[in-house]
Structure formats: C-alpha cells, structure tokens
C-alpha cells in the first residue's frame, strides 16, 4: 500500500500527462492526489482507464489556476465526504483498516494563507470523521522552519508560526522525508536558486500507530517544479534493512514475563541448574527457548488477552444478575490490570525510554516512541561509490562491508617496527600496580560487575538482558560466576561469548552514506561481565598511568577542560 501526492503544475497537454502516466507506472500508487491540475470537466472515465484506476474525483480549476484530482485503485474503498478549491476529504477502507485522508492545497497567496489553516481546523472538527486516524498530504505552500528553505529572502516568523499552530491544533505530526528534503525549486542557477520544502505528509498519532513502518520519499522532478511525494505504508514487501522480517528476528527475554508467577519455575526448568555438564552457552539458549515456548503456549498475544478479559468483564456487568457476580468482576479487573501493565512494559522495553518510572498508563506513548525509533533506525537506501542509490538489502550489505573493509585495512608498520617504538616508551605501571592487576578475581567482583549494569540495555545475540541475570541470580549465579572466573583467572576460551550484533545509529537526519552512521556492537551480558570486571581493576590505577593532559574518556575529567585552558591562554 502506497500513496503519492504531487503538485503537477498543469496537466493540459500530452507531455505533462505522459509524465503522470510514467510516474504511476513506476510507483503504482494505490492512492494518488494531484493539485494544480489546471483542468476543468476532467473526463474521469478516460483518466481512470489510461492511468489504471477504478475511482476518480476532481475539483475544477478557477480561471487558470488550481484544480484537484483524487484517484484510487480497487484495493481501497474510498468515500469522498467534502471538497473545496483547497482540499478533498475522504474516508479510506483498506481491508480491516479504516482511516481518513485529506488531499490539501495551501493557498498560494500569502495574504490568504490563514484561510487555509482555518480550513484545516474545520476539517479536524468534522464529527463524522473525527474518530478516524487522519492522514493529510499535499502542497501546503508553506514551510515550518528556516532550515526548510535555502536561498532567497528569509520567511517571516509569523508565517511559519501560523502553519505550526494549525498543525498543533489538529494534532498532526510531520512524517519526516527520507533522503532529499526540499520538494520545490525555482529552477534557476547560482545565487538565484531557491529550494523549499512546501510539500509534505502529516498524520495523527493514531494513524502513525496504525502504520508504524511508514516512510516518505521525495521522488525526482518530472515536468513540474515540485517533486512528487511517495508515501510507503510498509507491509510484507518492505525490503529495508531493519524492517520486520521473520528470518532476521533475534529472540529476546521480555521483561513483561517477570509479572507472571510461573516465570521463576520456567527459568529453573530451562536453566537446569543441577546438571553441571551443560555449557553456559547451551544453558542460556535452552532457557530462552523454554521461556518463549511457555510464553507462546500459556500466555499468547497480550492484545488478544486484554480484549478477551474486557469482553468477559463487560458481559458480566451487563448481565441482569451481575450484582451477584461482583467477586468474578473484581477478579477480572485485577487480571486486566496486570495484563495492561505487561503491555505497557512490553512497549517500554522497545521504546528505550528509561526516564519514565511510573504514573498514568503510557502504552500509547511507548508504542509511538518505539515505532518512531524503528523508522529512524531503518536503512532504506545507501549511495554507492558510483553515486547510485541502492535499496536492495543484499546490495546495501555489500556497500557496508566494502566501506568498513577499506576503512580498517592497515598498511602500518610491522610488529618488529612497533616493538622498537615501544622500547622507547617509559613504563608507567609499577610492580605494585601490576600485583593489583594480576590478583585473582573473586565472585564478589563478578556479581558487582553484573549489578552495576543497567537492566534494560540492548541485548546481544543470545537475547538475554542484564535484567534476566539480576532477577534470577539465585538460579544462574553459580554457573555464570564459575564461567566468568574461569575466563578471568584460568584463561579459559570465550567460546561464543564474544559474538556481537552490529547495529548502525544515524549521526544525521536522513542518512544516505555509510559514513553518516555510527556502528555499535551489542555484546552478550556474559562478555560484558568479564570486560566490566577488568575495567573495574584498571580504573583503580587509571589516574596514575594516564597523563594529566589527557582529559577524554577518563572519569572525573572532561574533554572541554583543554578547550577552556586554550581559550584562557589566548585571551
């Protein structure tokens, strides 16, 4: 399912209509909204036949400007509810989903722009459609911020503020565009070039939750000076790296399981603490599989269970003998409260928000934030070395591999040359320090290393977070401690401990090059325990072996200290 909005700047000649046909053939939008058609009495059946649509609704132009058209395919059931020279409003039914779409065209006259914002507010108040998730797209003829314009005279603050106020009043949030930001250009050269972001999609929170994998892309220019905007609602055909895919799913320990009384017994069953012959890696894998099987069979889908409990409770309350069933109602209310809390915890874990500790139900907030994180972190395309855009997962994987292979390839000095250099470096670690560093590690240090970790940080390839080990330390502590001490004191092999999941965090908005991502390695908790124990030892002598002028990455020092000293020395 996808949608395209485009200010066509006239569709009265064969060349312009041919460009439109090529756009439709390339993107195959299920819903197409056109503004500034500059046409009257559009032959709707002919347009439907030539463009391959089953439905069409148009608004005639006024003079030689304006004109709107909405087309849709048979996969959608569309009912137009209102229209004007600046909008077409409709309800859309796609399968079991029912939502609202408004194709919008902001008044090109600045003095009349406020009328467009009032129109948007009136559309928000229509009772028949007020409860539906709402998507608005088109040419608003206005920008929200100064960063959305390059060249020309700066936009007045009052103009931008009026647009922002209208969006806020209607609870509409911008669906950020991936890749190219600007959607309009005056097509002049040099210092006279002006670029602006006049076209956009905005939607309510309910609509964004309905389509969490949505992304917007500005397409290339056709004959118009506006770029068409392409909105992909995601789904099974999504090929983006980071999109949902059953073959790429990494199982994880769910913190919501802790609210079930059986969870402790299931961990004992999966961990098998009394069998000393099982390696630690196999214990972790078996335990997670046992937990998942239990959650799938006994717990099932949280939304479905919440819906069933509410239906039972409402049925009891509506029954004529319900005063005699108050104990059952109270029991259902308690169970429903627990399920809703689990659902909140489920989405809080995915939202990566740790500053909200309690209060009112935040499930919708966590869900929206998790969906937003997923959209931001999903890689939908990368620029190759030849300047081409690649959106295939296999191609993007090759681009990433090639980039980091070249980045970390070393033509540096040989080991012999390095040894000669190191001989000239004065030793900073004394004999007493060395005795401290080489002393045998204890079980207390292993436990402290674990409990110093944040419980909800991202998990590694084994799927277990620090929360699991902290909550069930009375079950897993003996085996984890023995394995960690074997690595620290006896130089035992790490086996699969040091496997990592590499994820990419965008450093800029709308990244298209590999260099615009920051790679992060997500390690297993057992590996973190070993590294934290080593770090804790080294931290005791850090101030003695690191020069006073080295301020970065040392506890109690700031990299800005040297900047301040340099500034004071100059002045």
What does this structure look like?
- The protein has helices at 14-27, 44-51, 113-124, 157-169, 205-210, 263-271, 280-299, 302-318, 326-351, 363-377, 393-407, 415-422, 431-438, 443-451, 466-471, 473-490, 525-539, 542-545, 560-570, and strands at residues 2-7, 31-35, 55-59, 68-72, 77-84, 87-94, 97-105, 134-139, 149-150, 173-174, 177-178, 184-185, 195-196, 199-203, 215-218, 229-232, 382-383, 389-390, 500-506, 517-523.
- It is α+β, with helices and mostly antiparallel strands.
- A 7-stranded mixed β-sheet has the order 3-4-2-1-16-15-11, with helices on one face. It has a 6-stranded mixed β-sheet with strand order 5-6-7-8-14-10. A 3-stranded antiparallel β-sheet has the order 9-13-12, with no helix packed on it.
- A hairpin with a 2-residue loop joins strand 6 and strand 7.
- The longest helix is centred in the middle third of the chain and has 26 residues, at 326-351.
- It is globular, with a radius of gyration of 30 Å.
- Residues 235-247 have low confidence and may be disordered.
């Amino acid at each position: 399912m996808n949608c395209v909005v485009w200010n066509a700047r006239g569709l009265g000649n064969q060349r312009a209509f041919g460009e439109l046909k090529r756009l439709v053939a390339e993107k195959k939008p299920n819903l197409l909204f056109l503004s500034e058609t500059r046409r009257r009495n559009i032959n709707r059946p002919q347009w439907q036949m030539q463009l391959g649509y089953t439905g069409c609704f148009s608004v005639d132009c006024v003079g030689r400007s304006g004109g709107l058209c909405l087309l849709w395919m048979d996969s959608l059931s569309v009912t137009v509810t209102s229209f004007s020279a600046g909008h077409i409003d409709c309800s859309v039914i796609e399968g079991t989903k029912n939502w609202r779409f408004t194709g919008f065209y902001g008044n090109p006259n600045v003095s009349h722009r406020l009328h467009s914002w009032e129109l948007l507010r009136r559309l928000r108040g229509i009772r028949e459609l007020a409860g539906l998730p709402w998507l608005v797209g088109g040419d608003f003829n206005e920008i929200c911020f100064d960063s959305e314009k390059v060249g020309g005279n700066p936009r007045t603050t009052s103009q931008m503020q009026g647009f922002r106020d209208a969006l806020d009043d209607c609870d509409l949030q911008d669906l950020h565009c991936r890749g190219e930001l600007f959607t309009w250009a005056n097509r002049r050269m040099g210092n006279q070039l002006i670029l602006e972001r006049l076209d956009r999609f905005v939607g309510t929170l309910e609509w964004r939750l309905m389509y969490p994998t949505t992304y917007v892309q500005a397409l290339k220019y056709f004959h118009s000076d506006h770029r068409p905007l392409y909105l992909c609602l995601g789904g099974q055909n999504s090929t983006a790296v980071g999109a949902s895919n059953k073959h790429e799913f990494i199982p994880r320990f769910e913190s919501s399981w802790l609210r079930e009384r059986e969870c402790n017994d299931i961990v004992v069953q999966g961990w098998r603490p009394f069998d000393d012959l099982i390696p630690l890696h196999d214990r972790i894998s078996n335990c997670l599989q046992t937990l998942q099987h239990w959650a799938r069979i006994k717990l099932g889908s949280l939304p479905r269970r919440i819906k069933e409990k509410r239906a039972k409770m409402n049925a009891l309350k509506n029954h004529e003998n319900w005063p005699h069933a108050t104990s059952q109602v109270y029991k259902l209310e308690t169970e429903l409260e627990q399920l809703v809390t689990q659902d909140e915890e489920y989405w809080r874990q995915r939202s990566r928000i740790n500053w909200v500790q309690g209060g009112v139900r935040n499930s919708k907030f966590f869900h929206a934030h998790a969906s937003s994180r997923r959209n931001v972190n999903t890689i939908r395309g990368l620029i190759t070395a030849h300047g081409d855009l690649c959106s295939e997962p296999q191609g993007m994987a090759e681009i990433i591999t090639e980039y980091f292979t070249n980045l970390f390839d070393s033509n540096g000095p040989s080991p012999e040359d390095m040894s000669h250099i190191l001989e000239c470096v004065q030793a900073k670690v004394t004999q007493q320090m060395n005795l401290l560093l080489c002393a045998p590690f204890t079980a207390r240090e292993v436990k402290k290393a674990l409990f110093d970790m944040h419980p909800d940080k991202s998990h590694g390839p084994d799927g277990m977070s620090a929360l699991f080990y902290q909550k069930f330390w009375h079950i897993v502590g003996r085996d984890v401690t023995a394995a960690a001490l074997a690595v620290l004191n006896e130089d035992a092999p790490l086996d699969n401990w040091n496997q990592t999941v590499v994820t990419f965090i965008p450093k800029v908005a709308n990244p298209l090059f590999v260099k615009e991502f920051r790679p992060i390695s997500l390690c297993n908790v057992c590996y973190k325990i070993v590294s934290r124990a080593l770090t804790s030892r080294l931290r005791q002598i850090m101030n003695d072996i690191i020069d006073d002028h080295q301020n970065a990455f040392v506890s109690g020092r700031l990299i800005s200290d040297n900047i301040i000293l340099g500034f004071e020395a100059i002045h």
